[in-house]
Write a structure and sequence with these properties.
128 residues; two-stranded parallel ribbon
Length: 128
């Protein structure tokens, strides 16, 4: 079965936007990463969702309200996906401290968002 959009696009988009609002300044998340944070909609098999979910997240970001930090969502290669408005994304991310290499990639190990609140990440106790 082929899905060009989620069965209930507005409900799905709301979930995507809620997650995107959690991405901290100076961090990025991938479309597929966000899709994995949302359960497949009713009637969509896991395999189909794995294939279409990242595209649906992209559709949500293309239609997001002004209060969603859309610039913080990039592709899984650490690059900005080609689309209308993409030229505005890099300067917005750089203003937040995100660094791009010479090939236009973001180091996802350094700037990638773990999907958790930074306060939830365990920190090693001081050794001294």
């Amino acid at each position: 079965m082929s899905f060009s959009s989620p069965p209930n696009p507005q409900a799905y988009y709301e979930q995507v936007w809620a997650i995107a609002r959690l991405i901290p300044r100076g961090k990025v998340a991938a479309y597929g990463q966000i899709a994995k944070m949302i359960p497949p909609p009713n009637g969509v098999e896991l395999e189909a969702y794995a294939a279409f979910g990242p595209r649906w997240v992209g559709g949500a970001m293309a239609n997001c309200p002004d209060d969603v930090p859309w610039q913080r969502v990039i592709n899984s290669q650490g690059k900005i996906s080609e689309r209308p408005g993409a030229e505005r994304q890099r300067p917005l991310l750089e203003a937040e401290g995100v660094v791009f290499d010479a090939k236009g990639k973001v180091d996802l190990k350094k700037f990638g968002w773990s999907g958790k609140n930074e306060d939830d990440v365990p920190k090693q106790a001081a050794l001294f």
